[in-house]
Amino acid sequence: MQRVNRISIAAGLVCFCLLIGCKASTTTDEPTSESSEKPKVALIMKSLANEFFSTMAKGAETHHQQSGQYELVVNGIKDERDVSRQVALVQEMVASDVDVIVIAPADSQALIPSLRRAIKAGIIVVNIDNKLDAEMLRKEGLQIPFVGPDNRAGAKQVGDYLATHLAEGDSVAILEGLQTSENGRARKAGFEEAMNEAGVKIVDSQSAEWEMAKANEIASSMLSEHTEIKAILAANDSMALGAVAAAKSVGRSDDLSIVGFDNIAAVRTAIRDGKVLATADQYGDQLAVYGIETGLKLIADENAEVADVETPVDLITKETLDAK
């Protein structure tokens, strides 16, 4: 592609300048004559109100400052469910003539048409966090690498650990993410697999759409309707914190086990305080970095294989936190 060749030549010029002592700025608002030599990367995330994504943005900005080899534009939406705004952001980045879009899609299918247009415009697209629908990508004839963890395996680790604190026949409930998001479905499947293997009954499972307030409301209802519930498995940490608030409101703080997924700071505190049992760490501060590095590699070599990259996901408990 001509676009990629121009970027490769420009990247070579930047390296030559650095070798002879030229100093390049790492800021995104540097002069056009200098910044035009660098690839321009757009990071498009979900809700920046969610600590996980604000951590992701900070990690990307730190990497950008340390690298100095590309420009970075960071975007996010206010609401996890605002798919139309995320579609508009993709269109804005295409119009801005970026070279790479690294996206954590709010919906696994709805973003694909706009991303197809971005690819046709010569932009490299990298998918992080929430995997785009594989069947729809095949139908569209698109190859978009997914850079992220195995969400099902991560959720199963959390579920397996929870099972060691339960007895066969105990009852639990699940707070699901958005049902149109692949990572939400994968985490639910991992939780279900762990509970089924342990002989634990799932008596209720509802979507709280990744939101803390909605999780509080739904978990309160679950605990009132099913007083036998011994644990709540939340597909992200925001919902786990909502479940913590619900448990407190119905007087179940001491005998209800709650697990989450993401390892945000507030949940680490809750784990140390005994309010949350466990979570999964998918290294949110590095997740966008992994995607950016993949995009830069594809720019550097237009013949590089477009392949998925599995990133780490680890179980976090009080024991693992105390060991650090």
Automatic annotation (TrEMBL):
Record's signal peptide: 1-26
User: What compartments host this protein?
Assistant: Cell envelope
Q: Which residues form the Periplasmic binding protein domain?
A: 41-300
Entry superkingdom: Bacteria
Main subcellular location of this protein, as a coarse class: other
Kindly give the InterPro entries that the UniProt entry links to this protein: Bact_Solute-Bind_Prot2, Peripla_BP_I, SBP_2_dom
Q: Which UniProt keywords apply?
A: Signal
Q: One Pfam annotation, family name?
A: Peripla_BP_4
Can you tell me which family this protein belongs to?
Belongs to the bacterial solute-binding protein 2 family.
Tell me what this protein is called. Answer: Sugar ABC transporter substrate-binding protein
